[in-house]
Description:
By secondary structure, this protein is mostly helical. The protein has a domain of 66 residues: 434 Repressor (Amino-terminal Domain). It has 5 helices and 2 strands; from the N terminus they run H-H-H-H-E-E-H. It has a two-stranded antiparallel ribbon. The chain is elongated.
Amino acid sequence: MSNRVDPYDVMAEEQRLIAMATSRLHDAIGAAGLTQAELANRIGKSASHVSQVLDGTRNMTLRTIARFGLACGVRWTFKQVASLSYATTREPGGEVAAVPGKSSRRQWRSTKRGR
Length: 115
């Protein structure tokens, strides 16, 4: 049995984190009453840069998240919420679920093809 991380699990986890982070960023920007242009000005980036981060087309780093948060008057906290001993699978509607004892590759492929 290999300890290598399954590439399908990686893709699913990346997408889950991107969706969660962009959602939280949108919430923070809205709560601060800022437009994307105002946020861009506060962090010294272009409006297109901000737009790309928020739509998930630009890679988001922890530095980016920190800048956005500080510009909106918030600080972020990260915590572990699930054990890595579980395989992740994609649920209908795009949610990622932990499924103990299941082959994540098989689950991802069958879900991806709509089965």
